[in-house]
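Let us practice reading a record.
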Amino acid sequence: MKRPVFWFVVGSQHLYGPEVLDTVAARAAEMAAELESDGAIPFGIVCQNVVTTPGEALKTVREANYDDGCAGLIVWCHTFSPSKMWINGLTELQKPYLHLHTQYNRNIPDRDIDMDFMNLNQSAHGDREHGFIGARLRAPRKIVAGYWRDKAVREKIGSWMRSAAGCRVSRDLKVVRFGDNMRQVAVTEGDKVGAQIQLGWQVNTWPVGDLVREADAVAETEIDALVEEYGRQYTFSTDDAGAVRYQARVELAIQKILGREGAGAYTNTFEDLHGMRQLPGLASQRLMEQGYGYGGEGDWKVAAMTRVMKAMTEGMGGGTSFMEDYTYDLEPGRELSLGAHMLEVCPTLAAGKPEIQVHPLCIGGREPPARLVFEGKAGKAVVVSLIDMGGRLRLIAQDVECVKPVYEMPNLPVARVMWRAEPDLLTAAHAWLLAGGAHHTVLSYDATAEMMEDWAEMTGIEFVRIHKGTTIEALKKELFFADVAWKLR
């Protein structure tokens, strides 16, 4: 992902004279530079001129809107900044917007405080004026309150920046669908035109024959080089070199098509493999490892979400993947979900070094495909599903705790992850069904529910969270009132 930057915009006014404005500008530059240097801040921060008039606010917003490198605004009012001057600017704002409620100094200087100090350091009520106009305009915004040097504040800013980066990637995202979705499946359908209007996703279909032709044209030397790379990254647990080479051929072919089309995600389905020898397994796992989004059975929504969440969490190192709840372990008091798929789970989730294995698939009617087999690592994670509710999209996030698999499962040759759902599996599954969550999801060790909620707010999507405090009674009411509210919009 091309590294975005965020504009740090500080509000004031001319009432206090040029000396105060010079101090405000100097402090703003200092704060922007110090924030950017913090490891919790994943992207660049560029300090802008202090906004003191309606014209300056409007000019700043318009320039941000049309600057492709700007991923959002961080706004703070050092002094009192009359909120009417922000109306025209905030009305036109098309980028994510964070209101930072802080102040330059941590403490009140007991013996040194005087009226000059009070006039300069007015964030406590300057930001309240700015907060009012945000509420009055019903502007979608993130509010972070606290001292700007505190770790928790910087982590919240960094998390929001990642959500904004996902929003930025979303606006330009193209999804290639090789064939259609699996027949008779409801949740993989959806309004592609509506998704493009709201999210920017361009979802179109390419015939499988195009992929076959591209694969046939891949040079043997390219395959040789890629298989050597496999040997450096994974453990070979198969003698079927032909199956592995075929997956390398398909990986290269898909990557060439995606590169040519400028696409960041793709789908396929085992029901449309005309001319292919294997269902892409290792190939899809590898492409996800490189940052591409993937969706099985033609599920373009989960493919796009995989790409968006990989972009949001780039560089964090925990892992993000296409996922599916496959089966449960219902031992009372320790219920667990087994997440897997036929083949396509990203190796960024692996606890150890993945193995390349070849086994029959028993679905799709093709040759046994090569795939990576591994256990997922332990740790906190989030499972996310985007569904089409008819007229609106709903994003569902489920908090989970991934654990080391409690069974060896020697005859299950797929990548797998086991997790404990919050507040417990039976309540969580009940809540998931009530909310309409899909069987295809994105699992991430790096993204958080708060990060996904911020992204949903930026994109105008309904958000539902299932967490340790969830009760079925409360969720039923939440979904009922949300349905009414979203229909009134």
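A brief commentary: The chain has 15 helices and 19 strands.
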